[in-house]
Design a protein that fits this description.
With 65 residues, the chain is an all-alpha fold. It has a domain at 24-61. It is built from 2 helices and no strands. Helix 1 packs antiparallel against helix 2 (48-60).
């Protein structure tokens, strides 16, 4: 049996100096999922608060929306 306790698949060693930037499609998955579900079920005009919450999350991560 292996004695590895790390859940990461990355090999041990120094971390890369530059991380790949976060893509907008991958940012804020929780608010994105709720926003998208609301738009599909009720229509965009009824989902203002969820849309704004997603925009705020995106802005907090540095995206210009």
């Amino acid at each position: 049996m292996s004695s590895l306790t790390s859940a990461s698949c990355e090999p041990p060693g120094p971390e890369p100096q530059e991380k790949k930037p976060l893509k907008p499609c991958c940012a804020c998955p929780e608010t994105k999922k709720a926003r998208d579900a609301c738009i599909i079920e009720k229509g965009e005009e009824h989902c203002g608060p969820l849309i704004e919450a997603h925009k705020e999350c995106m802005r907090a991560l540095g995206f210009k929306v």
